[in-house]
Amino acid sequence: MTMKRHAFTSLRYAAAGFVLTLTAMGGVQLYAQALKGHNTKAPVNFAADRIELQDRQDRVVLSGNVDITQGELRLKAARTTVDYTNAGSLTVQRITATGGVNVTRGTESAQGNVGIYDFNNRVITLVGNVALRRGGDTLNGQRLTMDLDTGVSSVDGRGGAGGGTNGGRVTGTFSVPG
Q: Which NCBIfam families does the protein's record reference (predicted)?
């Protein structure tokens, strides 16, 4: 009996600091070195039109032109909830952002409908109409996961509600030397 082996094809493409790995499963990993080495222990600064401290729930709700920075990383959104622990001093655990979420660092930016920054795992996840941009290069999908330790970003076309306009696929454009 001959067993068919499912071969995963990989394409590595270097352009503007990106290395792209495509797999037969439809996911895309993007080695975006702009996020590697981000200091996840740097202080978190925030500004908003309205800030509500919900002390009993250990959270802060920021709304209206929310602007959060940590080192060179910036997150902007219409509304965020900052969950924290309070053991003598406040320690941010998680930021959940909604409404035009935009994450930038250097020349790289990512947009989505909803964003979650998990401080314990050092991961930022964007869901819904996701776009990752660096210079003239773009990747579009429904779910983006950025590992701040490794600098690896993974884009999936099937991760968002409604599947988006790209039919559950990841799309993109890359610059070529010219």
A: outer_YhbN_LptA
* Mean of per-residue pLDDT scores for the chain: 79
d(CA 157, CA 170): 5
Give the percent of the chain with pLDDT over 70. Answer: 74
Domain extent at residue 87: 12-162
Domain count along the chain: 1
Q: What is the pLDDT of residues 114-156, one digit of tens each?
A: 999 999 999 999 999 999 998 888 899 999 999 988 888 889 9
Q: Is residue 169 part of a domain?
A: no
CATH no. for residue 87?
A: 2.60.450.10
State pTM to two decimals: 0.76
